[in-house]
Amino acid sequence: MNRIPLETWYYEIPIITRIFVSCAIGCSILVQCDLVTPYQLFFSWRAALDRAQYWRFLTTFLFFGDLSIDFFFHLFFMSRYCRMLEETYAQRTVDFAWLLFVLAGALLAAAPIASDPFLGTALSFSLTYLWSRRNPGVEMSFLGLFNFSAAYLPWVLVAFSCLVNGRMPVQDVLGLVVGHIVYFLEDIWPRNPASGGKRLLKCPEVIRRLFLREETLVEL
Predict the structure, then answer these.
(1) Is the separation of the CB atoms in 11 and 3 below 8 Å?
(2) Among residues 83, 91, 24, which one has the least CA distance to residue 58?
(3) pLDDT tens per residue across span 74-131
């Protein structure tokens, strides 16, 4: 049976990005239907640990606001660069999942710096930064006004946000900083002779084996 275009697009998205997009849409639908409130989804260390509301570690990255034009803009932006980055991890889904875990952990540690208790935008920006640094030669266009190389994409987005909002986009900058740290440790440092070729952020072998074991069980 032929799929409708939207369904085809959805199932062409790599699995991790697809889960990310689905959960983000789900969170916004739940809020739109008044089944939950944003106050139940935002992140704070006190609420997450002292009140044992551990879901906040996850939902802070999944809520992008009520269903609106702004929400779908953020969703498109997030899914685009998350998807393109995940596609570079072909046959290495566990490595991409671990990358997301590392980025999320770093952003949670830096959460007190953020002016927004929701960190989805910062995570999206980290993913965008990583993609741009790994694909610096890709030619891009900004609203059809001018062309630039992908290496400059994060800076173009920060400048545009400053121009539109009249203030420094704290979440974007936070995502940029975290993305750069991860990029350095994952892509630059292992090439330094002093590193001995070791990747400090490499996915732990125990997690890799567990993931591969689950995949084997599914296939059986």
Answers:
(1) yes
(2) 24
(3) 788 788 889 999 998 877 889 999 999 999 999 999 888 777 788 998 999 999 999 9
In angstroms, the CA 93 to CA 86 distance is 8
User: What is this structure's pTM?
Assistant: 0.87
Q: Whole-angstrom Cα distance, residue 43 to residue 120?
A: 11
CA 202, CA 102: separation in Å to the nearest integer? Answer: 10
Angstrom CA distances, 16 to 3, 33, 98, 176, 186, stand at 21, 26, 11, 21, 20
Residues 116/167, Cβ–Cβ less than 8 Å: no
In terms of Cβ atoms closer than 10 Å to its own Cβ (0-12, 13-18, 19+), residue 125 is buried
Backbone torsion region of residue 159, taken as left when φ is above 0, otherwise alpha when ψ lies between -120 and 50, otherwise beta: alpha
